[in-house]
């Protein structure tokens, strides 16, 4: 089975698609081949960048709150540029409920990251397309490192905001005070917060970003392999 | 001889033992008893598991409670009581300032009526779930209920009429609903001697524009002889464009009607060609007749009712419009007139008749063409009975009243006196089945059963006498409704359930045709009530002479403002409370101690106004009357009432941010200065 798949993979890399021949053996100059990315990697990086455009359309993350008296649930979508209710009233209703525990209002205008996140993602897309065009492997590695950093920092930042909302409660206006209780929703997964069950999961945008990252990773792996193969043939 | 007594004794002992065994077995073992098996089957057919929905919405008129009840079928669960013609202190309908105008009439404010016939709007002859119409029988009126929010949005008074009983049946396109006079009266009403009935008393048939929400009006009225017009139904399919009305008391009795109006062998069904009426009206044959009536509308954007007094109707006289009305002789004071789904058969329920007569529309048309007239009554041709009759259902039972159809070629007729529902076949007129009902059925209802496409699965029997059907509640009992399965050849009794008031007619519709359009809250951004308080900061108190306006919000779990001072004895206080929640079923209520009106329920996004005239000095609490949240009991406030001329300043406790807004509000005249 594995053999068959590999055979197929080699068949696919037969040079029928892409600007450059995909099979290293067909490359004209092994030295040059060491520095450039295989065609498949370029295609993957281009697809990866284009997928990221989806972040401007779809929310990154979705937090869903359900309770016995909220069978229909309340939802919150985290987008790269804003935080909004799943319906036009959900965010207000979540804020309304949060006043009982002294949580501050969730107001996208108070979250500066949302102002520059679209620019960062835009830059990632443009640079990704540039990587696919230039096809230099070192630039690809830098791009992927950038992608990784943006992703990790983004998630940490998201968690930090969740922590902030969940822990920094206004004791003066909080109506319900339970010693030791905090109301931080999980980054991924489910947590019971008083009568509400909070479910936090990547939404379409987050899933697209994940796929984009995996494609980038595959591009890097292919490039590294090709580079090693070229090194061997050069030697 | 000596042994003779012994044999019965032995028999009794054996019989008793056998009975005991049977009873023991039936009680202890699985349900082997046939009745239990049947009952279990029926129970499963009406069982709607917790969290599940009913298949149909049923709308039952409330009779003398003046309202409409929405039930779920097949469970028989009450979903809502909708305030229509009667004040409803439960919600504040007709009590709060926004809805009072709905109950305005030329007689003044009327807090009550008697609702009889629920009628769903139709598209192409099929109930469409947009609106429900309902009549007020006592002071003739018709109302429109919007099925997006189950609220009465419009009430039209019917002028030149008394007893709006044959109402508000619809045409297949809902272009018109009708209302006919049960009681003939002098038109225009006048001080005349009652024995001058024959010369002075008249009836009218009103055609009401119904397909334009907020714009109900009398399209035209037809002046009719002074009989009692009882019920009506529109033609459909082949008889589209016609309307049929039953009438009794063609004897024109004005006293002891019980006897005097039951003299003649036959009364009439009036067949009215309303397309012909439209033409005559277009040709200017209707006379503009001074008339006095009210039209009350709940404005969709302000959500406040407003009244308009109207002064004229177009009155059509059958003599001026040939071909407008024909009379079909029909046995014994006919009550219901029901048209089968094809529109061909016109079924009459002759209260005292021994048969159910069925007229044929096609025969009627031929009879008109052939001028098969036996006489005329005040210029209206009377067709020969034999020329229009299609058949008679023989020995149907006693006291036929109303007929509904299952869309499978069968008709079902309620029998008041013999207390049963009788199933019979259209065309062959043979009786197929009988189901006793408890007791004395009035109307029956099959979902869509008076339309072109009945959903012929259930039949609801609305009975007039309850007696021992439920646990007794003293001399006054609930009415009794019974649900019957009509999906098979034989009717099966499924369920008894009590109903409020006295339901007359009802209508039902598959739930999804209503449920999917049901509103969850009113959008605050679309609330154009001039007294809206859109946010906490906008609340406050202000004086306009002797009127004090309080602008207040309600949100879980507080009112803002919640402390009010500066009210003086002699003032009239208007609490304009806006529920600023935008969440489903987060309703707040409002009540003030000592207010001589009802409290009010304020759905999310809505502004409602309670008028309060303090009668003594003191501090008066107000509170939320609808358990809204965990801190509902904290949702309260105080209003201080000082003596007239007191120097206590007007104040409403609001936040610092609100205070600046309040100052601004006091400088700029508030939009709500409309006097009430």
What structural keywords apply?
heterodimer, A: 235 residues, alpha+beta, five-stranded antiparallel β-sheet, 7 helices, 53% helix, 13% strand, disordered N terminus, B: 676 residues, mainly beta, Methylamine Dehydrogenase, Chain H, eleven-stranded mixed β-sheet, 9 helices, 12% helix
Q: What does this protein look like?
A:
The complex is a heterodimer of chains A (235) and B (676). Chain A has a 5-stranded antiparallel sheet. Chain A has one domain: Up-down Bundle (Butyryl-CoA Dehydrogenase, subunit A, domain 3), CATH 1.20.140. The N terminus of chain A is likely disordered. Chain A is of the alpha+beta class and 235 residues long. Chain A has 7 helices and 5 strands; from the N terminus they run αααβββαααββα. Chain B has 676 residues and is mainly β. Chain B has 9 helices and 46 strands. The N terminus and C terminus of chain B are likely disordered. Chain B has 2 domains: 460 residues, YVTN repeat-like/Quinoprotein amine dehydrogenase (Methylamine Dehydrogenase, Chain H); 138 residues, Immunoglobulin-like (Sandwich). In chain B, a hairpin with a 7-residue loop joins β15 and β16. Chain B is globular. Chain B is 12% helix and 42% strand. The chains are: A alpha+beta (235), B mainly beta (676). Chains A and B meet through α4 of A and loops of B.
């Amino acid at each position: 089975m594995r053999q068959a798949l590999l055979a197929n993979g080699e068949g696919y890399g037969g040079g029928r698609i892409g600007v450059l021949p995909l099979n290293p053996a067909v490359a004209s100059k092994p030295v040059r081949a060491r520095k450039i990315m295989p065609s498949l990697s370029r295609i993957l990086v281009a697809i990866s960048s284009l997928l990221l455009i989806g972040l401007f359309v779809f929310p990154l993350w979705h937090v869903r709150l359900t309770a016995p008296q909220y069978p229909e649930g309340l939802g919150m979508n985290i987008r790269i540029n804003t935080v909004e209710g799943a319906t036009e009233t959900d965010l207000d209703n979540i804020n309304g409920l949060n006043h009982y525990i002294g949580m501050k209002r969730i107001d996208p205008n108070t979250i500066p990251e949302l102002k520059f996140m679209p620019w960062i993602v835009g830059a990632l897309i443009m640079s990704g397309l540039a990587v696919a065009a230039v096809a230099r492997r070192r630039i690809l590695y830098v791009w992927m490192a950038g992608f990784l950093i943006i992703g990790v920092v983004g998630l940490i930042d998201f968690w930090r905001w969740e922590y902030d909302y969940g822990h920094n409660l206004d004791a003066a206006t909080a109506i319900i005070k339970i010693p030791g209780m905090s109301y931080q929703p999980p980054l991924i997964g489910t947590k019971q917060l008083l009568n509400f069950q909070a479910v936090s999961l990547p939404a379409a945008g987050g899933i697209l970003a994940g796929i984009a990252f995996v494609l980038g990773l595959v591009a890097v792996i292919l490039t590294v392999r090709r580079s090693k193969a070229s090194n061997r043939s050069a030697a | 001889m000596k042994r003779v007594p012994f044999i019965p004794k032995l028999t009794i002992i054996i019989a008793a033992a056998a009975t005991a065994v049977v009873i023991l077995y039936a009680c202890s073992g699985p349900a082997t008893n046939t009745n239990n098996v049947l009952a279990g089957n029926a129970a499963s057919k009406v069982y709607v598991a917790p969290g599940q929905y009913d298949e149909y919405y049923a709308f039952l008129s409330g009779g003398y409670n003046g309202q409409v009840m929405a039930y779920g079928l097949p469970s028989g669960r009450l979903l809502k009581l909708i305030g229509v013609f009667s004040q409803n202190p439960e919600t504040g309908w007709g009590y709060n300032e926004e809805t009072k105008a709905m109950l305005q009439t030329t007689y003044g404010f009327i807090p009550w009526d008697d609702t009889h016939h629920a009628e769903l709007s139709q598209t192409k002859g099929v109930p469409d779930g947009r609106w429900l119409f309902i009549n007020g029988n006592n002071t003739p009126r018709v109302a429109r209920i919007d099925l997006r929010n189950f609220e009465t949005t419009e009430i039209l008074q019917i002028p030149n009429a008394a007893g709006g009983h044959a109402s508000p049946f619809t045409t297949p396109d809902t272009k018109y609903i009708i209302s006919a006079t049960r009681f003939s009266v002098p038109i225009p009403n006048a001080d005349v001697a009652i024995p001058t009935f024959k010369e002075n008393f008249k009836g009218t048939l009103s055609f009401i524009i119904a397909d334009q929400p907020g714009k109900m009006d009398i399209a035209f009225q037809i002046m009719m002889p002074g009989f009692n017009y009882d019920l009506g139904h529109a033609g459909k399919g082949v008889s589209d464009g016609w309307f049929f009305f039953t009438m009794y008391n063609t004897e024109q009795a004005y006293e002891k009607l019980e006897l005097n109006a039951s003299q003649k062998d036959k009364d009439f069904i009036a067949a009215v060609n309303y397309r012909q009426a439209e033409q005559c009206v277009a040709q200017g044959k209707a006379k503009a007749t001074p008339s006095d009536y009210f039209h009350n509308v709940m404005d969709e954007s302000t959500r406040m009712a407003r009244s308009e007094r109207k002064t004229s109707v177009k009155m059509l006289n059958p003599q001026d419009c040939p071909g407008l009305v024909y009379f079909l002789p029909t046995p014994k004071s006919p009550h219901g007139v029901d048209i089968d789904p094809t529109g061909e058969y016109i079924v009459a329920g002759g209260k005292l008749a021994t048969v159910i007569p069925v007229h044929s529309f096609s025969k009627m048309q031929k009879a008109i063409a052939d001028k098969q007239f036996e006489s005329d009554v005040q210029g209206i041709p009377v067709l020969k009975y034999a020329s229009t009759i299609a058949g008679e259902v023989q020995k149907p039972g006693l006291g036929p009243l109303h007929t509904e159809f299952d869309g499978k070629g069968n008709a079902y007729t309620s029998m008041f006196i013999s207390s049963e529902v009788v199933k019979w076949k259209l065309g062959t007129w043979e009786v197929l089945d009988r189901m006793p009902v408890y007791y004395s059925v009035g109307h029956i209802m099959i979902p869509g059963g008076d339309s072109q496409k009945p959903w012929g699965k259930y039949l609801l029997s609305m009975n007039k006498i309850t007696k021992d059907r439920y646990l007794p509640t003293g001399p006054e009992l609930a009415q009794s409704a019974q649900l019957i399965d009509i999906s098979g050849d034989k009717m099966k009794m499924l369920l008894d359930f009590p109903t409020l008031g006295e339901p007359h007619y009802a209508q039902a519709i598959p739930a999804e045709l209503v449920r999917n359009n049901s509103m969850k809250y009113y959008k605050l951004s679309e609330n154009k009530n001039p007294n809206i308080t859109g946010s906490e900061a906008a609340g406050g108190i202000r004086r306009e002479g002797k009127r004090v306006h309080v602008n207040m919000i309600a949100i879980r779990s507080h009112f803002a403002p919640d402390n009010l001072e500066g009210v003086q004895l002699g003032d009239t206080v208007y609490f304009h409370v806006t529920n600023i929640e935008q969440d489903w079923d987060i309703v707040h209520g409002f009540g003030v101690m000592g207010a001589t009106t009802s409290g009010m329920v304020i759905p999310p996004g809505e502004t409602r106004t309670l008028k309060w005239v303090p009668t003594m000095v003191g501090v008066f609490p107000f509170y939320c009357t609808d358990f809204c949240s965990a801190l509902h009991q904290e949702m309260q406030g105080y209003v201080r009432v000082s003596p007239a001329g007191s120097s206590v300043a007007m104040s409403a406790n609001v936040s610092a941010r609100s205070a600046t807004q309040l100052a601004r509000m006091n400088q700029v005249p508030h939009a709500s200065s409309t006097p009430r």
